[in-house]
Design a protein that fits this description.
The chain is an alpha/beta fold. It is built from 9 helices and 8 strands. The protein has one domain: Rossmann fold (3-Layer(aba) Sandwich), CATH 3.40.50. Strand 5 and strand 6 form a beta hairpin. It binds adenosine monophosphate (AMP). The site of adenosine monophosphate has 17 residues, from helix 2 and helix 3.
Length: about 210
């Protein structure tokens, strides 16, 4: 299964990606996670991405596209992948299409997690993230349910940055929905509900896709 997950920040992409990647036996490739790992290790890529991430803006395409192109050559992605957080604009979607066309391995589907704006702000501002494994956690948790790591609030989950991220989504990322609808790849599900219900909606919708 070669799948892209798309939706506004706070739609639950990271959480669903984790379950769906395990379900289909493919790697979960999150560009945000890769950037955060690089920030933590203070690599040159992390330093390059930091100011954009902290202000809720997109890291420049040249940096992001090269990173994804490289990641897709890894052995674990040979039989499929789940991309989370990429593409984030139409130019990135075109680059992805070209990378996959070259390998003759086109996308099977693009799953859109749809959620009303008013739910997003509450979810993001109360979200905590694990410093160890990077998974999202609920605000009432004291430690990460997956690895027991310490929880923190992402710099870009603070109120002042959330508004900027939502603007960036509307202006730059939402147009890829139209792009993928035109390509006949778009599947939209309602992402409001319990985590397991949304996973079930996703796998039911994706079972109609021939991968
Ligand atoms: P995320 O964890 O997906 O919300 O991403 C966190 C931040 O990483 C974003 O706000 C961007 O600054 C950066 N980022 C992640 N994916 C991309 C991408 N595909 N293109 C540009 N910047 C990205």
């Amino acid at each position: 299964m070669r799948l892209v997950l798309v939706g506004p920040p706070g739609a639950g992409k990271g959480t669903q990606a984790q379950f769906l990647a395990a379900h289909y036996g493919v790697p979960h490739i999150s560009t945000g996670d890769i950037f955060r790992a690089n920030l933590k290790e203070n690599t040159s890529l992390g330093q390059e991405a930091k100011t954009f991430m902290d202000s809720g803006q997109l890291v420049p395409d040249a940096v992001t596209n090269a990173m994804v192109k490289d990641r897709l050559t890894w052995e674990d992605a040979a039989n499929g992948f789940l991309l989370d957080g990429f593409p984030r604009n139409v130019a990135q979607a075109e680059v992805l299409r070209a990378i996959l066309a070259e390998k003759r391995t086109p996308l099977d589907a693009v799953l859109e997690l749809s959620i009303p704006n008013e739910l997003i702000i509450g979810r993001l501002s109360s979200r905590r993230t694990c410093r160890g494994c990077g998974l999202p956690a609920t605000p009432d948790a004291s430690l990460c349910a997956s690895c027991g790591g310490e929880l923190y609030q992402r710099e870009d989950d603070k109120a002042e940055v959330i508004a900027k991220r939502l603007d960036v989504y509307e202006e730059q990322t939402a147009p890829i929905i139209h792009f993928y609808r035109t390509e006949g790849l778009l599947i939209t599900i309602d992402a409001d509900g319990e985590i397991h219900e949304i996973t079930e909606r996703a796998t039911t919708a994706l079972s109609r896709v021939k991968a």
